[in-house]
Amino acid sequence: MSLFTSPPVKRAMRLVVTALDRRIKRIAGVENAELTRRLEQAQRQLDKATVNNYAVELLLGRSGRGSHRTPTRTQVGGLAGEVREATGVDAAERHVHLAYRTLVVLEALGSGRVAGGTMNVLGKLSAIPLLKPPNGDVLEIGTLHGLFAAGLVRQLVSAGYAPHLTIVDPLAEVQLQPGHVLGADPSGTPISENVVRANLGLSGLPEARIRLRRGFSDDSEVRAAVSDREYGVVVIDGDHSEEGVRKDLEWAETLVASGGVVVLDDYTDASWPGVEAALEKHLEGSTRFTLVGRVATSGFLRAD
Ligand SMILES: C[S@@+](CC[C@H](N)C(=O)[O-])C[C@H]1O[C@@H](n2cnc3c(N)ncnc32)[C@H](O)[C@@H]1O
Question: For the chain, is the Cβ count within 10 Å smaller at the N or the C terminus?
Answer without folding.
Answer: N
